[in-house]
Amino acid sequence: MIQLVKSIYTPESAIRHPIKLFQEMFRDLFASRELAWRLFVRDFSARYRQSFLGYLWAFLPPIVATFTFVLLNKSGILNVGALPLPYPVYVMIGTLLWQVFADAINSPIKTVTAAKTMLAKINFPREAILISGMLEVLFNFVIRLVLLIVIFVYYGIIPPMTAPLALIGVFAIFCLGLMIGIIITPIGVLYTDISQALSMILSFWMLFTPVVYKPPSTGILAQLTLLNPVSPLIVTTREWLAIGAASNVFAALIVFSITIVLLFAGWLLYRLAMPILVERMGS
After folding, report:
1. Potential cystine with 210: which of 4, 99, 215, 224 (Cβ 3.0-4.6 Å)?
2. Dihedral of the CA atoms 175, 180, 182, 183 (nearest 10)?
3. Does 22 reside within a domain?
């Protein structure tokens, strides 16, 4: 005999029973894995099937960004000084890591907005939408790693023994972007201004992040870089991947620790806000 799950909805806030709320959150997170995978496959297939260039769109952003900054450096417009790596390699690594951060921020808003109709009509674990977007971000990063391998081979760079630690750095960058994205999703879904402003904010944010230049030691840019939470993560991950010794591991660990706490808080906010968002989207 099939046993049906009974759901009882009350106006009482779920936050009044935190233990039950946390149990339901992790239960739904585990239960949403299969649906998340199916949503990822559907969106991924639709995205590249309807595109003339197909999978090339995954490679084009870091290639264009790297070419632009290398050209500026060669022409003398951008002077970054002495670097421990060839400048194209330095820029390519920084661009790939920054792309992970930017994609992770945009992913929650983009996936929830795209699923508005489904959210209003079907009751399912809302975490499935977030996970499907996370899978797309990670898959795009894996595809772009091919570019990094090619450029490493071209310049004859042998990754140091610390290279596997770079995966931890990538994960930390991904979590930082995801945390910010989840926190702003409730507002971003209701007001499209957030999504439109986000691209401009990220473009400006990249300017004071050591993506295409080494961290400065003096001046206002040095202060902005010091206050920028992305900076130690990108610097440490790039050093682990291609240099060996990392210069700012302690700051990266602090940022990562705070990120994990705020990521859970953002997940809780998303969980509590989704019923209200669904009601607003369905009206």
Report:
1. 215
2. 140
3. no
User: What tokens appear for 152 in the block?
Assistant: 């490493």
| 244 found inside a domain | yes
Q: What are phi and psi of 260, to 5 degrees?
A: -60, -40
Q: What is the pTM of this model?
A: 0.85
Q: Is residue 20 part of a domain?
A: no
Residue type, 255: V
Helix axis angle for 166-190 and 127-155, nearest 10°, is 140
* Number of structural domains found in the chain: 1
Residue 8 has what pLDDT? 54
**Separation of alpha carbons 257 and 265, rounded Å:** 13
Q: Is 220 a domain residue?
A: yes
Euclidean distance between CA atoms 121 and 282, whole angstroms:
8
- Of these ranges, 72-81, 188-197, 234-243, the one predicted with the greatest mean pLDDT is 234-243
Distance between CA atoms of residues 232 and 228, nearest Å: 8
Q: Which domain holds residue 160?
A: 55-105+142-282
Q: Provide the 10 A C-beta neighbour count for residue 228.
A: 17
Instruction: Read off the tokens for 180.
Output: 């910010």
- Return the amino acid letter for 180: I
Residue 220 has pLDDT above 80, yes or no: yes
Residue 166 tokens read as: 């770079």
Tens-digit pLDDT profile for residues 60-71: 777 777 777 777
pLDDT confidence tier of residue 155, bands split at 50, 70 and 90: confident
* C-alpha torsion 178→180→183→188, nearest 10: -100
- Coil, strand, or helix at residue 240? helix
